[in-house]
Design goal:
Family: Belongs to the binding-protein-dependent transport system permease family.
Subcellular location: Cell membrane
InterPro entries: BPD_transp_1_N (IPR045621), MetI-like (IPR000515), MetI-like_sf (IPR035906)
Number of helices: 17
Order of helices and strands: HHHHHHHHHEEHHHHHHHH
Membrane topology: Multi-pass membrane protein
Oligomer: single chain
CATH class of one domain: Mainly Alpha
Radius of gyration: 26 Å
Keywords: Cell membrane, Membrane, Transmembrane, Transmembrane helix, Transport
CATH superfamily of one domain: MetI-like
Strand content: under 5%
Shape: globular
């Protein structure tokens, strides 16, 4: 770790520690991690409770929606409602839901007639592929532009890159997705579309390396939409953090020692400016599991986002509950991990 982090211990703490008195850093970190884990478990418990009741407030009768076009009699509707357990009192439904959840049984989908865990397992891979690639590109692009913009404050590059990122960040995701779909997918006038507009692969998808290229072509538009609306967060956080580090004394001392500007930025300023982005990156990793509902719906990407949208449309209570809990629990766990990692990386947080 660079000089400012090593010297970040407050003077009062250093004075309080006598010779040979080493504070139990590892013990303190463990206690901190356990306290965060306890908070995460409490949050997950609240999510389980809230998930059941919130989705019951949605309008629509799942049994009648599932019976559309089948001319079912009231007796048949009652039997279907009994089969799904929707004729039980709400408190009994809640007890069944909690008991199954604790056994890692998310129930059976009303619409697909299959276990929710199986459906989630099938859709998880495409979501991790799309959102994972998008996250890597967004983080890399945002940190690179944020570093250049912060180091060259008020330069033309700073103004242009910050302005473009803020505009893209302000644009609604569905509007940008539809625009890219229309321009680069469907085409405008005599200009034909360039990229596929739906799905993860072609109907007659080839084998081998050609299949990889086919999937990559289908990923271009949804991945571009994800990156465009996300990378601004990393750019702005990195730029702000670097601006704070540039004004620190250790940067002035490094320059006074005759170090080249690139060395001062790479070896001293950037490593310390990266710390605030740790929490942001871990938060986005949590959202990877949920994918992007809007983007996956626009491009018919067969991931968890589209699965969640289909569950809301029915409504399919068990499928909604399962996908929502998975998304929420992933975000909670990643936020907890981010807090612990941040404490381990930054001595200033440990001494606070």
């Amino acid at each position: 770790m660079t000089a400012p982090l090593e010297a970040a211990e407050p003077a009062a703490v250093q004075a309080a520690a006598g010779p040979g008195d080493e504070r139990p850093t590892h013990r303190g970190t463990l206690q901190y991690a356990l306290s965060k884990a306890g908070g995460a478990l409490f949050s997950i418990a609240m999510v389980i409770i809230g998930t059941f009741f919130v989705f019951r407030l949605l309008p629509g009768d799942p049994v009648r929606n599932l019976a559309q076009g089948r001319n079912m009699t009231p007796t048949q509707l009652a039997l279907e409602r009994h089969r799904l357990g929707l004729d039980k009192p709400l408190i009994d439904q809640f007890a069944d839901f909690v008991g199954k959840t604790l056994r890692f049984d998310l129930g059976t989908s009303y619409e697909y007639k299959r276990p929710v865990l199986d459906l989630i397992g099938e859709r998880l891979g495409p979501t991790l592929l799309l959102a994972g690639v998008g996250l890597v590109i967004a983080v890399s692009l945002g940190l690179w532009q944020g570093t250049r913009a912060g180091w060259r404050h008020n330069s033309r590059f700073d103004r242009v890159s910050t302005g473009i990122s803020l505009v893209l960040w302000s644009v609604p995701t569905f509007w940008l997705g539809l625009l890219l779909l229309m321009v680069f997918g469907v085409g405008i006038g005599p200009i034909p579309g360039i990229f596929p507009t739906r799905g993860i692969e072609s109907v007659d998808a080839p084998d081998g390396f050609a299949y990889v290229l086919d999937v990559a072509a289908h990923m271009v538009l949804p991945c571009l939409t994800l990156v465009a609306v996300v990378y601004a967060q990393y750019l702005l956080v990195m730029r702000s953090s670097l601006l704070e580090e540039v004004s620190q004394d250790y940067v002035t001392v490094a320059r006074a020692k005759g170090l080249r500007d690139d060395e001062v930025r790479r070896r001293h300023a950037v490593p310390n400016a990266l710390l605030p982005t740790v929490t942001l990156v871990f938060m986005r990793i949590g959202f990877i599991v949920g994918g992007a509902v809007t983007v996956e719906t626009i491009y018919s990407w067969p991931g968890l986002g589209q699965l969640f949208y289909e569950a809301i449309r029915v409504p399919d209570f068990t499928l909604m509950q399962g996908t929502f809990m998975l998304i929420t629990v992933a975000v909670i766990l990643m936020n907890t991990l981010a807090d612990v990692v941040y404490r381990m990386l930054d001595p200033r947080v440990r001494s606070a």
